[in-house]
Amino acid sequence: MAIQDLTDTELSRLFIDTGIDLSTLPAIATARELAPVMGTTEAALAQDRYRRGGIPYVKFGRRVRYLRADVARYLLTHRTGGDGSAA
Question: Span 42-69, mean pLDDT?
Answer without folding.
Answer: 91
